[in-house]
Amino acid sequence: MSWSRHSTPTTPSIACVAERTGRAHSRARTPNASARGAARMPSVRIDSGGNGMEHTRRASLWLRDDVGRRDWMDVVKGVAIIMIVAYHVSLFLNSLGMDAAGVGRARIVLDLFPMPAFFLISGLFQTRIQSWSFADLWRRRLRQYLYLYAVWSLLRFAFYLVVPNVRADGAGTAASDPLALLGILVWPISSYWFIYALFVFTLVLWASRVLPAWVLVAAALIASTLMSAGLIDTENVGWNRMIEYFVFFVLGATFQRRIHAAVERTTPLVIVGSVVAFAGFAAFATFVPRVAGIPGVAFIGQVLVVAAGFTLATRLARVRPLGWLSYIGVRSLNVYLVHIFVIALLAIGLSHIAGWLDTLPGRGLLVIGAMTAIVTALSIVITRYLTRVSWLFVYPFGRSAGARTTRANARESR
Q1: CA distances (Å), 43 to each of 54, 59, 363, in order?
Q2: How confident is residue 172, by pLDDT bands cut at 50, 70 and 90?
Q3: Is a pLDDT exceeding 90 seen at residue 251?
Q4: Region at 50 (left for phi over 0; alpha for psi -120 to 50; beta for the rest)
């Protein structure tokens, strides 16, 4: 999540939690709505032989021809947020005793791609901050991150005071502990650590702007390799993950132009090569699990899967039947903020039929897939109405009510 150069500086999104980059990207595809409509209208050609009007479509039934240069990001975000939902679903199911049929193995796979992908995309939109004053940084980035993190942490706390603590997204009894809530600015206790990470990462990136780029890249890489290998541990899941994934945020900010150029010049051969490379790595790591403890191995795997995902997304963005991935990616913030609540409520119901579910073919994996689809859809529907309450998503102070209303109306129209 980062701040997109296409968006207003106060609107939230998920590879851009403080900006709805996906929605901004959709505005950037064509100069205006009429141009966008024209790009999708069938062309009409008059046959010179006098056979009358012949209608031909510029885009085939399967492939789009109106894809923007950066639309692949929406596909990546869509895939990543679905994997995050599935990961959290698997954790809740595990708390119900459903660890059969590959739930644990699925969780390992689901944990590999999303966070590196989101942080790398977030970093791509941070290059401008190095020329800002701290006042600009606070107004255009930090206060939105901090506000969003605090508001939704409070909502989560209130939720678990009422709803039985099925699993509490990793926090255990801390989910409804007032003292734990007071410490969230230094000790993240929930899945919202991602927003907190954006605050910390952005501040560190800005503060280190006077240093040569390679210094921060090297420091972040060393910290990541040590953390992923289990050689260091902060005893806090949020901080552990922040240390492991900071390197991707830094790489995105440092090599923004090169990354964009590499992805946008992707060829079929590169896609096949990147997918094969990751598949080979995954197979090796599966059969030789001890390699995961070697510093740097996890980072190599993450780089390979991100490369495969990014390059493949450039082609998937053109496939019309897969447009729902982009749709979800545009709304990734909505899903991210709400999905834990939806999962917790569904898990309460599932807890009464866990024994019966365990008799189904495929058991865990079947339930993971079904719940992931339901949770994702419900999260999008719920936040369609929640976005009418603009202060849940956008820092409300110091701005006119008219501006907030305009933004809320714009969100609803999308």
Answers
A1: 9, 10, 50
A2: low
A3: yes
A4: left
Whole-angstrom distance, CA of residue 343 vs CA of residue 96 = 12
Question: Does any domain span residue 327?
Answer: yes
Q: pLDDT at position 100, please?
A: 52
CA neighbours within 13 Å on the CB side: how many for 125? 30
Q: Is 5 inside any structural domain?
A: no
Q: Is 35 exposed, middle or buried (0-12, 13-18, 19+ CB in 10 A)?
A: exposed
Which amino acid is present at 235?
E
φ, ψ (nearest 5 deg) of residue 212: -60, 145
**Beta-carbon count within 10 A of 214 CB:** 9
d(CA 47, CA 54): 7
3-state secondary structure 96-141: CCCCCCCHHHHHHHHCCCHHHHHHHHHHHCCHHHHHCCHHHHHHHH
Q: How many domains does the chain have?
A: 1
Query: pLDDT digits over 264-296, tens only?
Result: 899 999 999 999 999 999 888 878 878 888 999
DSSP at 130:
G
Tens of pLDDT, residues 367-413 = 888 899 999 999 999 999 999 999 999 999 875 544 554 454 444 44
CA angle, corner 334, sides to 198 and 350, nearest 5?
A: 110
b/e map of 127-164 (b: 16 or more CB within 10 Å)? Answer: bebeeeeeeebebbbbbbbbbbbbbbbeebbebbeebe
For residues 3-15, average pLDDT: 41
Identify the bridge partners of residue 53 per DSSP, sorted by sequence position. 46
Whole-number Å distance between alpha carbons of 68 and 97: 45
**Residue 181 CB: number of other CB atoms within 10 A?**
18
> Which residue type occupies 153?
S
- CA 9-11-16 angle, 5° bins: 85
Instruction: For helices 363-386 and 72-95, give the axis angle rounded to 10 degrees.
Output: 120
In a domain, 133, yes or no: yes
pTM given for the model: 0.81
pLDDT value for 107? 62
Close Cβ partners of 260 (under 8 Å, ≥ 6 residues apart): 70, 124
Q: CA 8 to CA 19: how far, in whole Å?
A: 7
Range of the domain at 322: 69-413
pLDDT in tens, 331-371: 999 999 999 999 989 888 777 676 666 666 556 678 888 89
Note whether residue 42 is domain-resident: no
Which residue would you say has higher pLDDT here, 91 or 118?
118
